[in-house]
Amino acid sequence: MGRFGITELLVIGAFILLLFGGKKIPELMKGLGSGIKEFKNAAKDDSSDKKDETKE
């Protein structure tokens, strides 16, 4: 039950396309990508701050 086949992914993709429309999807993906990028940068900064504290 944990695996998705190609048919399920196509149905989910079609549902998302119908729900949001073709013009809105690139904007959503751009927002999602920038959010992930910010999260990675914040996690990287946090880990480097911890390394600096342990050196002192």
Your description of this structure?
By secondary structure, this protein is mainly α. Helix content is 84%, strand content 0%. The protein has helices at 6-20, 24-55. The chain is elongated, with a radius of gyration of 19 Å. The mean pLDDT is 84.
Structural class: mainly alpha
Q: Which strand-content bin applies to the residues?
A: under 5%
Rg for CA atoms: 19 Å
Order of helices and strands: HH
The main sheet comes to: none
| Mean pLDDT metric | 84
The low-confidence parts are none
Q: Quick one: how many beta strands?
A: 0
What's the overall geometry?
Answer: elongated
Helix proportion range: over 70%
What is the strand and helix layout of this fold?
Elements: H1 6-20, H2 24-55
Describe, in short, the structure shown.
This protein is mostly helical and 56 residues long. It is built from 2 helices and no strands. It has helices at residues 6-20, 24-55.
What are the defining features of this structure?
56 residues; mainly alpha; 84% helix; elongated
